[in-house]
Amino acid sequence: MTEFPRKAGEWTELSREIVYDNPWIEVQHSAILNPNGGEGIYGKVHFKNLAIGVLALTEEEEIFLVGQERFPFDGEYSWEIIEGGGPLEIDPLESAKRELKEETGLEAAHWEFMQEMHLSNSVSDERSLCFIAKDLVQKEAEPEDSEKLKIKKLPFQEALQMVLEGKIKDSISVAAILHYALLKKSN
Predict the structure, then answer these.
(1) pTM above 0.85, yes or no
(2) 3-state secondary structure the chain
(3) pLDDT at residue 16 in the model
(4) Domain extents for the chain?
(5) 49-186: which CATH topology?
């Protein structure tokens, strides 16, 4: 149980109320003192899973993208790298392997950690971990019941161009694709 007041760096949390809770998120409303000593309120979305991203690449530098409609954006279609949630108590690499297999049917012999990101740090504590998957073998996909996915394999440069033209908007995908492009350029 958290005791209040609670210091969080230069912030002081005076109290906290849980205003919404489901298996994936918890919305918290806190009375706070900001770093300058002013009283205020803060709303935070606490995520109960890690956001996992997988940049799956073939030997020919082709990338796999997953397409689907996204409910929060009124069903707007989104092309993304392989993504999903990973329970906090499970090794993130195991979650990445599961997501790759579920969404594409792919298994990878070589894995490399790429980056950690805070996805919306002004209102949430959601963290994302991204991995590169190589030496791919195609097996049977096992998508979740709620997912209606399209899979597309294209040259990495085309995916990079999609990012630069604003055709890929998902933040994890944009960051991972740009990160990999910079890694390629520096090697």
Answers:
(1) yes
(2) CCCCCEEECCEEEEEEEEEEECCCEEEEEEEEECCCCCEEEEEEEEECEEEEEEEEECCCCEEEEEEEEEHHHCCEEEEECEEEEEECCCCHHHHHHHHHHHHHCEEEEEEEEEEEEECCCCCECCEEEEEEEEEEEECCCCCCCCCCCEEEEEEHHHHHHHHHCCCCCCHHHHHHHHHHHHHHHHC
(3) 97
(4) 6-47, 49-186
(5) Nucleoside Triphosphate Pyrophosphohydrolase (3.90.79)
